[in-house]
Amino acid sequence: MVIDISFDFRTDAMGRDPDKYSPTLKRYHRLLWSKPLPSGVPFELSDAPGRYLQHRSNLGEFFLTSDSVIQTFTRLKKTEALFVQIPKAENKAFLSLAYTIGGMIVFPGNRVGGMNTINVDRGFNAAICDRLDLTLECIRRHYERRGSPLQSTLARYADFFALFNDFNGYVSFFLLDDLFDDDLGLKYFMPFDDFHTSAYPKDLVTYKEYQRRSIDFIEARNHRIQQLNI
Is residue 50 packed enough to be buried (19+ CB in 10 Å), middle (13-18) or exposed (0-12)? Predict the structure, then answer.
């Protein structure tokens, strides 16, 4: 199956959440992430009744769900005034690109101890606000055993992150390389000050730069996916 990097997953979700209802997105996730782990052990994903995707082997059992990881700030009252100042055609193009495969990832989808999943907590935590760059900073700190706004959430899924050995393994496995420089320094979408500043864009200039950097990343990741020999 050829992956269409231009496919907007809202197209076949019939007005519903693409992360749950786009069959094309689910097929792409299964195809992309069914591959050897950094250890060389196969990580095969399959359909699971009542779930999204699952892996079951000697490694353990993992239930994964899809997440759109590019925060567009289009549905938030707090940033609505910024969004409407940008031409509609530009906003439409950004939204369409954000729903291509370059803007998607999988996270563990099972609730541990009745607590929120990563998808939920990274969205509700004001220090993260659903941003991929800040989520990855938290994941980096998880591997380094340092604190972060998602520390307790990520710790609940330590067995999942252990599959990738270290942060570099995680980044490489999920083809996130284009958000990092050669020294694995994170290219933040907005200025970062150790989670002391707001995760929201403060003005139009900041938001437009956030859009530009998000677009650059998605396009680069889409290109990386397109080059895979699948």
Answer: exposed
Q: Is 201 exposed, middle or buried (0-12, 13-18, 19+ CB in 10 A)?
A: buried
Q: Is the pTM of this model over 0.85?
A: yes
Q: What are 154-199's pLDDT values in tens digits? A: 999 999 999 999 999 999 999 999 999 988 899 999 999 999 988 9
Interhelix angle for 88-98 vs 204-226, to 10°? Answer: 40
- The string over 162-200, giving b where at least 16 C-beta atoms fall within 10 Å of a residue's C-beta and e elsewhere, is ebbeebebbbebbbbebbbeeeeebebbbeeeebeeebb
Q: Which of 213, 199, 200 is nearest to 97 (CA)?
A: 213
Cβ-based neighbours of 182, under 8 Å, separated by 6 or more: none
77: tokens are 């009252």
The two structure tokens encoding residue 191: 């200025």
Query: Looking at residue 186, what DSSP letter applies?
Result: B
